[in-house]
Amino acid sequence: MTDLATAGGALRRRPKQRAGLAGALPVFFIGLFFIYVLAFLAGPALSILFQAFRSSSGDFTTQYVDQLFGRFYAKAYVTTAALSAVTALIGVVAGLLTAYQIQRQSTPGWLRNAVNSFSGVAANFAGIPLAFAFISTLGTQGMLTLWLKALGIDIYGAGFSLFSFWGLVLTYLYFQIPLMVIIITPALQGMRREWREAAMGLGGNGWHYWRHVGIPILTPSVLASFILLFGNAFASYATPYALTSGLVPLVPIEIGNLMSGNVIADPQLGNALSLGMIVVMGAAMTLYTLLQRWTGRWQKR
Asked: Where's the ABC transmembrane type-1 domain (predicted)?
């Protein structure tokens, strides 16, 4: 009887031990995640904050932050913000229309799967490979450029240049539009068919449905997507650097020049530029979070 009681107690303890182990694993991985965030996000951000207000001798100074409002670096921020806003706006409109079209019931399943698969790949295809692909296609000796020239269309003679502001806009759209398709698809899938049927049953038409139901519901998601695309473009470095080599003044490129340049190296000023970039990205992410909460309230209704 004693052996049976001991065995029974061991069997009762075993599920508790397994439950304790299963509960400890999530805590362990969450702890690793926070350590990762502190080491590679919070730590560098705090270091940039302190270094931006610190002179080469270690004294407190605002001279580097004051330079951000000078003509040259202010222009870099304006150009970067303009590039991000233009590509985000075009990406939102084109991506929304594309996602809406492929989510319609009349769209073939193979086309929907193809667009979704391409979007997943293209949204992450950036950097030097993307720049090389566009140079090979639309550069001065690119394949498409030469084909058009053979047809009598000289796009560079007409004023187009891949290595300019609008060339960067065209390049950024390659990953901005697919990213918008990925982001907005869940919101479109959350649109219930009963809402349209109710609008039609009350005597409305398609315009009334979109005016009073569809657009108000999608607006928070669309605005949040715009902010996310804006931040995605604002932080891009490798693609514009490979295309323009600094000819277009952008904040990430100027930071790279100051932090690692052999001629104009100035780490303190680079930290100040990075601090300004953190402020812009922080504001964008704050707005994105607020809009996501607004979207969540709509989806719960």
From this structure: 77-290
